[in-house]
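Class, discuss our next protein.
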Amino acid sequence: MFNRLESGVMLIDKHAGITSHDVVDRIRKATGIRRIGHCGTLDPLATGLLVICVGRYTRLSPWLTCADKEYVSTFEFGSHSNNDDADGTITMLSDISPIEKKFLQDTLNNFRGSIMQIPPIYSAIRVGGQRSYKNARSGKNIKLAPRPVVIDKLDLINYSYPEATFNIKCSKGTYIRAIARDLGKACGSAGYVRKLRRTKVGSIYINRSITLAEVEERIKKGELNSCYTCVSDVLVDLPHLFIENQPSLVKRFINGNPIECLSEDNEEDYAVFDQKKQLLGIGRISSGKLHPNSVMATQF
C-alpha cells in the first residue's frame, strides 16, 4: 500500500549522553528520510526504550506517546541537583542523617496512585511561550504549576544509602526527576536521579529494541527493513480489526470514508489491517460504521 522502506516503527535502545532528537537526526541522516519522530522524550542521562516512527507511521505518535512507561531508576539522597539529575550541579547537604529504609518505604505510599506533581524547572514545558529550561538557564525565577500524574508502581528493589533503586510505572507526562526530588524532601533530605533506564512503553519491552549503532550498520548494508518491528505488535494495546477479502471496503477506508461494520459501537480506537496484516490506519466504530481516524496506507 506504500513504500515499506519509507514507513515503519523502530524500537531503539538509546545510550546515555545524547538527546532523543539526536537519535532522530542520526536516523534521518542514515536513511535520507525526513519524516521521522520519537514517541516520548528521554533525557540525555537516560537510557533505554525510545520508540521511533518513520514516514506515514509518524501518525501513530498520539497512540504510542500516551502509553504508560516503566523505568528502573537509581536515586541519590542527601544531595541536591539544580536540574534534578546527575548532569546538573550537585550540592551535598550538611547535617543530614541517613534515611532509614522503613521510613523510606512508608513514605513511598504518598507517591503512589493519582498525585499532583510539579515538573522540574529544567524541562521543556512552555511558560509564557518560552521553554522552562531556557528561562531557568537565564536565571529567571520560574514557578511551574502542578500537574496530575498517575504512578502505578514505585517499588524499592535495592537500597544502600545514599542510593536507592526503584521499579517505576507511571503515566505520560510523569517526571522521574521530580519523584526523586520530592521523595528526598518528603524524607527530610534531598534527592536526584543518578541513573534512569526506560524498560517498557505500553506493552513494548526493551528486549525487542536495537541500538542506534546497529540501525546505522544495517542501513549501510541495505537492510533498513530489518530495523522495523512488527507494527501489529507495537499496537498490541489497541484492539485489532481486519478487513478481509473486500478490496472495495479497503479502498473506501484508505480514502477516508466510513464503512459498514457489524461490531458494536464503543469509545475505543481500533488498529485496522487488511487481509495481509498490513496496517491501514486507526479507526473508531460509531452508528454501525467504522470511521477512519488516521489513515496510514495509500493506494498504489
